[in-house]
Every structure is written in structure tokens, then in C-alpha cells.
């Protein structure tokens, strides 16, 4: 199967609403909503670095788009479309069919059509760029946190990292427990509805991709603020809560791959209910730095840092 | 050097005009021009497939952006920005500094700022996604060619392929001749001004990336037309013109990597002068298929086809 047959078979559909031209010309042509800002994010996934070679390709298709949609969610954007650039060592039709199925399922569920891209031969590499919209001045940024703002997180943290530790062989879990955390790692849910509902409410937001410490650290740096973080308040699954405390802390603080939203909001703000649990985990302070404390307010030493692709 | 230092040192600058938020948040935020359509294209470059490991990294930075801008040019779009996703085997600061220099030079010359992206460790892979604008209904597409339209091409064809043949060792050139064709291969010029000037004039357009036969074939397929192509009219450098005829034909018809624009326009249309040579190379016909003829109108057998990443 040649390059163009491959695109036609797996990645081409009639252009969606708001798309003048989709896959199959030199560029896709989109119709912007009058008055909206245009938001763009791009993530590259490399085999062995972002996913295991043994992963179910349908889950990989889901995750490749999910991590990008998560960036739109963190900015409060409404998805409009995405491009897919894909390097494949060879054409494996079973793999492609499953990958495309996982990708399209999330694309359809998110109202985010595939509008273009590229395919080539090479070491497996998936690069997705997503486009979304938000009303002018309403995109959620990292820079708006203010003293006294409460820090919130959606869903649960740490399960993806716990699954990775099982794959690495540093810990073991029962079958059910393993499936729970493996699903968290392989099928993250981008918090699009939450992000959009937080427009005009959250003062800053980010998604947890590299680990809570580092990602919250980006908010603090961009906002010129410090924070106190209650480690006992961090929401975790029963599976993670059953692990040794040191491992829990590592997964919660430095795990990454969670794709939950961390955001700040003024104390007492009315937060939206979009069916996702929200947990208050700390407070923004004027003193620079991130102070991790327990439920009694005592400092917790951790020595952890976030994931860095060139230092890890 | 960590991931974020790398981004700050080589790929971060203050946000450009029309960019509310550039590199450094979850998304970049752009301000669309009221009434314009939004055009998007994405290309992935893989070492050993799209470039040689020995290429000057400054030229690689130029070319990675140039091949993407060429897609905007083919649609008549005005560039607005691009994202860069980069997988690197290791952090090599000399390489990165040169790559970034070549990239920024073309970005600045094209008014197309880097607005975001991703860096990770992995086999060298460069994925750029470009964004541009065109007035509603004025983007140049592949689908508008009509019977009697003339077929035109900008610049010269075939030099990039001739350079590749020298690298492959199938032919040899003198130093000056080699530098000419090597520069064509490594430093293509995206025809942005020409593409924009062809809005409202050209009935269809495409850039020559995979080879003239295949790329013109895309126009014919999208337009439901056929064509007659005069092989003797194809513009070529003196270096290429000095090669055996069979090699000339291969480079001209099936070479690819030219990044010139092929477009159709009604006979007698007044074509823009933007300082780029334009050559009439054929005519659109109702009969399906692409007929290659010489200056006397005799059919030329060639047996060539365009580059395909999974068949070549």
C-alpha cells in the first residue's frame, strides 16, 4: 500500500462543519469563529519514550490525540481540528486500522476533526498539532495566579506513574489494580468541558503532563508567586493509596502523564460542575517557592522533581 | 541542559505582532484577521529519508520550515506562525544553535514567527506545522483546473534530484555544478509572494515536493482533468541541461524536492511579476491522463513515477 492509499484508507473523511478543505490539499482551510482567538498546541510522541512498543495501537491513537486536547483544555479552548504527522517503520494494516479507530473515536467525541497531516517512513513517531478557539481575553494562561487563590486539581493523580513502575518491574499489583492504573496511563481523558467551564473563573491553569511539582511550578514562575501544597489532600485512587507512602508521594508529585487540570481560583469562587471531581490541594502565597506540607501543616521533605526529557 | 533551558535558549523570543501568547504556555494564542480563512499544513522530516545526517544544520533548519511554507505558498496564504516539534537523540548545542539560526532566518524573512512546539529525546525527527491566512474563497486549491487552462511552473525543476544522485554516487559533477544543485536541494525557496499574487488568477496550484508527474497528477485528479505536458519546455539549470537526456527526464519529471509552484491559469491571463521566472509547460485537456510530449508534439515514453514514502 502506498502513501496516498494509506491516507485515503485510514485518515481521510469528508470535511467536517467549519472546515472548507480537509485532508487532501496542500493546506486545510478552516473558518474561524468571528471574534475568537486561535489556540495552537503541538506534542510529539516517540516509541520507548512516551509509550511502550507493546501498547494497544487503539489506545495509542486515543492517547496521542488526548495529550494534545489536554493542552487545549488547560487553556479553556473549544477544539476545532488537528493535524497528524506520522512516521512508521513499515505499513502494518492491522496496527494502522486500530490506531485510526482509537484516534477517530476521541476526535468524534471531542468534536475535533482530523484536517491534514503527513505520513512518512521512519522510526515510529506521532506528532499531532491541535487547533482550538476561545473568546478574546478568556484563554486560561499560566500567568494569572494571585496571592490567596486556592489551588485545585481535577480527577486523581499518580495512577499513570504507578502503572509505569509496574511495567518497569519496581512494584507489582493485582490484576484489577493493574488494569485500573494501566487504563489511566494509556487512556487519559482530556478535561475539555472543565477547561471551557473555567473561563472567567480560573485565574490560571495547566495540565499535569510532566508531574504536579513541575507543572504547578510553571504556574508559579509565570505568575511570580509561591504556593503551599497539602500532600495529604492530593486525590488518589484506592490502588495508589494502598502503596507505600514514599511511592505514593513520588507518583503524586512527580509522576506526570496524568492529564488532569491544575488551576487556581479566588477563594470562595463558584466552581463549575461538569461531572469531574475537583479537589482543593493548596493555596497561592507571595513567598516564592513551593512548600509541600501534610494535613497538619508540617513540611514534607521529598527531593522529587518533574520529568525532563533531556535530564531524566 | 534540560528541556526547558533548551527551549528558552534556542526557540523562545518575545511574542510577535498578532500573537497574544507565544512559546511558553500550554497553547499559543493568535489573533485571526477578521474575515480571513485559516490555513494549516504539517510536514515531518526524518533523518536518512528527507535529509542526510551530514547536512549543515543551519540549512536543515531552513529547509524544515521552507517545505512547510511551500504548502502555504501553494495555497496562496500569508504566513502567520508555526510550531516546531523536535525529537533529538541528544543535546548538541553547536547543532542546535546552527539549526535555530537557519530556522529563524527564514522565519524572520517570511514574517512567520515560531509560536510553540515540543522537544523530546528520540531518533532525529522534525515536525513543523504552519498556519496562514487567505481571504474567504481565495485560497488556491488543486481542484479548479479547467479545459484549455495553461500549466505553468516557477523557477527550475530537477536540480535537487540531480544533487541526490551525486550523493548516491550514480553521477558526478564538477565543484561549481555540484554546489548549484546542492544548494537547490538544501536551501529551497518557498514561493510565498508568487502564491499570494496568484490569488484570483490561478485556477489551481500545488508545490512540487514529490515530483512533477505526481504533483501535477494531484491537480488532474482533484480537477477531473487530463493534460499535455511539453517536456522540452520544462525549465532546467545549465548543470542539469548538460546531463544525459534520460537523467534529465528523471530529474525533471520524477525528482521532487523542488518546492516550485505548478499552477494553471486561463490562456492569456495576466500573470504577476514577483521576480520569479514563470514557464508555460503544458495545457489542461478534457481527456483523462497525463501525456508527455516533446517540442514537436511527439509522445515521450518515460516510465517514471513520483516519489512515494512507502513504495520507493
Architecture overview:
Two copies of one chain form a homodimer. The first copy, chain A, has 312 residues and is of the alpha+beta class. Chain A is 32% helix and 25% strand. Chain A has nine helices and twelve strands. Chain A has helices at 3-11, 57-74, 93-110, 159-168, 175-186, 192-197, 212-223, 238-241, 245-254, and strands spanning 19-21, 28-30, 36-46, 78-88, 114-121, 125-135, 150-154, 204-207, 226-230, 261-265, 278-285, 289-293. In chain A, strands 8-10-7-11-9-12 form a six-stranded mixed beta sheet, with helices on both faces. In chain A, strands 3-6-4-5 form a four-stranded mixed beta sheet. In chain A, strands 1-2 form a two-stranded antiparallel ribbon. In chain A, α3 links the parallel β4 (78-88) and β5. In chain A, α2 (57-74) packs parallel to α3 (93-110), α4 (159-168) crosses α5 and α4 (159-168) crosses α9. The two termini of chain A are 38 Å apart. The mean pLDDT of chain A is 92. At the A-B interface, α1, β2, β3, α2 and β4 of A face α1, β2, β3, α2 and β4 of B. β3 of chain A pairs antiparallel with β2 (28-30) of chain B.
Amino acid at each position: 500500500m502506498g502513501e496516498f492509499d494509506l491516507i485515503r484508507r485510514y485518515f481521510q473523511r469528508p470535511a467536517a462543519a467549519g472546515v472548507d478543505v480537509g485532508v487532501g490539499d496542500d493546506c486545510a482551510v478552516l473558518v474561524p469563529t468571528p471574534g475568537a482567538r486561535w489556540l495552537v498546541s503541538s506534542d510529539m510522541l516517540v516509541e520507548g519514550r512516551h509509550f511502550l512498543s507493546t501498547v494497544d495501537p487503539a489506545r495509542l491513537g486515543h492517547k496521542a490525540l488526548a495529550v494534545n486536547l489536554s493542552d487545549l483544555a488547560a487553556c479553556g479552548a473549544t477544539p476545532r481540528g488537528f493535524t497528524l504527522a506520522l512516521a512508521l517503520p513499515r505499513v502494518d494494516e492491522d496496527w494502522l486500522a486500530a490506531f485510526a479507530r482509537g484516534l477517530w473515536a476521541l476526535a468524534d467525541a471531542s468534536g475535533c476533526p482530523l484536517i491534514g497531516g503527513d505520513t512518512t517512513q521512519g522510526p515510529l513517531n506521532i506528532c499531532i498539532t491541535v487547533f482550538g478557539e476561545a473568546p478574546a481575553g478568556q484563554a486560561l494562561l499560566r500567568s494569572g495566579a494571585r496571592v490567596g487563590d486556592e489551588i485545585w486539581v481535577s480527577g486523581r493523580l499518580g495512577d499513570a506513574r504507578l502503572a509505569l513502575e509496574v511495567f518497569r518491574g519496581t512494584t507489582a499489583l493485582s490484576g484489577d489494580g493493574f488494569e485500573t492504573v494501566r487504563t489511566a496511563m494509556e487512556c487519559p481523558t482530556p478535561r475539555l468541558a472543565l477547561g471551557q467551564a473555567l473561563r472567567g473563573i480560573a485565574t490560571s491553569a495547566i495540565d499535569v503532563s510532566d508531574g504536579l511539582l513541575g507543572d504547578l511550578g510553571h504556574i508559579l514562575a509565570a505568575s511570580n508567586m509561591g504556593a503551599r501544597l497539602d500532600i495529604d489532600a492530593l486525590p488518589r485512587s484506592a490502588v495508589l493509596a494502598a502503596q507505600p507512602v514514599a511511592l505514593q508521594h513520588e507518583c503524586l508529585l512527580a509522576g506526570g502523564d496524568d492529564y488532569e487540570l491544575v488551576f487556581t481560583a479566588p477563594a470562595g469562587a463558584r466552581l463549575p460542575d461538569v461531572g469531574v471531581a475537583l479537589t482543593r490541594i493548596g493555596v497561592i502565597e507571595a513567598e516564592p517557592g513551593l512548600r509541600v506540607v501534610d494535613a497538619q501543616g508540617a513540611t514534607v521533605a521529598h527531593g522529587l522533581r518533574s520529568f525532563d526529557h533531556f535530564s531524566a
